[in-house]
Design goal:
about 250 residues, alpha/beta, Rossmann fold
Length: about 250
C-alpha cells in the first residue's frame, strides 16, 4: 500500500489578471521506504509539488493522502500537529536557528513533540554522532561550514524518526565533494531507518541516488521511472563513518 497518494493535483496562481498553472493534474503514488526524486528545472513546478505534498501549501484542486490522512483537508493547527508527528524537512538554506548550538537545533523537533530535555539531548547527540559532527555539537551555525550546517539539518530532519523526509534542493549551496558526502549521509539515514525520502532537485547527478525519478516539466509529469540508486550501503557503515569528522564541507564558490 502506498504511503503517499497524490490524485489529480492542480495548482493555479493568479498573477495580476493572468492565471499561471503551476501543476496540472498530477497523479503520483510513493511507497513506504522509497527514495523518490522529483526532477525538474527552475519553474517546472517541482517545489510547488513538494510544498503541497508536505502540507505547506494548499492545492487549487486534487488531494494528497499521507498514510490515510488527506492533508489538503486539514486546517493549519491540524497540519502543524501532523507535520510534527510524521514529517521531517531538509532545506537548501539549512534553516538553522543562528543563536542555538548544533545540539539545540537537532533537538528542536523533539521539543515540539513533548520529549523531555534529557532524552531529546541524548537523541540529538546520537544523531550528530551519526553524521560525524562529534566535535561540532556545541558550535552555532556561524561557526560551521555549509556542509557541516547541512549535516546538522539532516540530523534534525531524522531525529524524530518521521515517516517521510522532504528535501528541497538539499545540496544547492554546496560544492561537488560536499554534495556527495551529504547525499551519502541523507540516503544512508533513510535506508537505515526505513523512511521515505522525497528529494526535489534540478541536478540529474543528485537524482541518481533515488530509487525512482519523476521528471516534471511545466507542471506536468513527463516521465516516471525506476532507477538503480548509485548509493552503496557498504560505504556508509555506522552512518558515514568513512568520512573524516567535520569534513571540509564548504559552500559553492561564487
Amino acid at each position: 500500500m502506498s504511503l503517499i497518494c497524490v490524485k489529480d493535483l492542480r495548482k493555479v496562481y493568479r498573477v495580476d489578471k493572468e492565471r499561471v498553472v503551476a501543476l496540472n493534474r498530477i497523479n503520483l503514488n510513493v511507497d513506504p521506504g522509497e527514495i523518490c526524486c522529483i526532477l525538474g528545472t527552475s519553474g517546472s513546478g517541482k517545489s510547488t509539488l513538494l510544498n503541497i505534498m508536505a502540507g505547506l501549501e494548499k492545492p487549487t484542486k486534487g488531494s494528497v493522502t499521507i498514510d490515510g490522512t488527506d492533508v489538503t483537508k486539514l486546517n493549519e493547527k491540524q497540519l502543524a500537529v501532523f507535520r510534527q508527528r510524521n514529517i521531517g524537512f531538509v532545506f537548501q538554506s539549512y534553516n538553522l536557528m543562528p543563536t542555538q548550538t548544533a545540539i539545540e537545533n537537532v533537538a528542536m523537533p523533539l521539543m515540539f513533540r513533548g520529549v523531555g530535555r534529557t532524552q531529546r539531548t541524548r537523541d540529538a547527540v546520537e544523531m550528530l554522532r551519526a553524521v560525524k559532527l562529534e566535535k561540532r555539537m556545541m558550535h552555532r551555525p556561524t561557526q560551521m561550514s555549509g556542509g557541516q550546517q547541512q549535516r546538522v539539518g539532516i540530523a534534525r530532519a531524522f531525529v524524530a524518526k518521521p515517516k517521510i523526509v522532504f528535501a528541497d534542493e538539499p545540496t544547492g549551496n554546496l560544492d561537488t565533494k560536499t554534495t556527495k558526502e551529504v547525499m551519502e549521509i541523507m540516503v544512508g539515514m533513510a535506508r537505515t531507518y526505513h523512511e521515505t525520502l522525497i528529494l526535489v532537485t534540478h541536478d540529474k547527478d543528485i537524482a541518481e541516488y533515488a530509487d525512482r525519478i519523476v521528471v516534471i516539466v511545466d507542471g506536468n509529469v513527463v516521465s516516471d521511472q525506476a532507477n538503480e540508486s548509485i548509493f552503496k550501503e557498504s560505504v556508509v557503515p555506522g552512518m558515514g563513518s568513512h568520512m573524516a569528522e567535520g569534513g571540509n564541507g564548504d559552500e559553492k564558490s561564487s
